[in-house]
Amino acid sequence: MQGSGDEEIGHRETSGLFPRYMTQMDARHHLDGRLLFMLAAAAIAGVLFWNTWPLYPLKLLVVLMHESGHAAATLMVGGSVDAIRISPDQGGVTLARFPPSILREIAVSSAGYVGSAVSACVLLYVAARAREGRWPLIALAGWCALVAVLYVRDAFTLAFVGGCALALGLLARYGAAWLRRAVLVFLAAFSSCYALYDIRDDLLHVSSWSGGTDADALARATPPLTAR
Fold it and tell me: Which residues is 94 bridged to in the sheet?
């Protein structure tokens, strides 16, 4: 992401009903053994098969989550988003404009990392509590469709984001409940892993991306601290 200026970048008493309801909810909606197993398996598979082609679409999807974080932060600080682009080499860029200031620059530049982490937490939360996982997948499909309509301007990103919206919608409509929850858990684990890899690559400059990283943007925006 590149930014700055014109750059790329009611309570009601329920007597005994409320405690009983809470007990039933806790019994149904929690990280049970199967869910924890799927979470661990997804994390391990993501690490062991990181560079294999089946994980390639998932990487691009997490990149989209990352760039969506930049877009959301830009809108929250009073800016505007011109476009979101995803490249075949797993790069991404958010073309944004916002009033220049150090705080806005820091907020928008760090929002990609935060967006990936928050997306992982939200996916894990809903996977643990959704009985069938249909509505979270519909929400994901709607998010992809919204991004495609509002911010996608190039053919590759449009094809990928549109394909994701279609695939997630079909899974929500026709997929088995266990498969829907498994996909949510895998996406949560994979997004967590990718966020860590992304931070490592940006800090250590492991990636071959030459357009400048979010870590570079944060370094430029943060004033140097000098000891006295």
Answer: 84
Q: Which pTM was predicted?
A: 0.75
Half-sphere exposure of 188 (CA within 13 A, CB side): 23
Q: Which residues contact 75 (CB under 8 A, 6 or more apart)?
A: 81
- 54 DSSP 8-state letter: G
Residue pLDDT, tens place only, 185-223: 888 888 877 777 766 665 665 554 455 666 666 667 666
Q: Which region, left, alpha or beta, applies to residue 205 given φ > 0 means left and ψ of -120 to 50 means alpha?
A: left
CA angle 158, 191, 163 (to 5 degrees): 25
Q: Where are the domains of the chain?
A: 32-221
128, 120 in Cβ contact below 8 A? no
By CB atoms closer than 10 A (0-12, 13-18, 19+), residue 209 is: middle
Residues 143-187 pLDDT 10s: 999 999 999 999 999 999 999 999 999 999 999 988 898 888 888
Assess contact for 60 and 167: CB atoms under 8 A. Answer: no
- Helix boundaries (H) for 77-133: 102-129
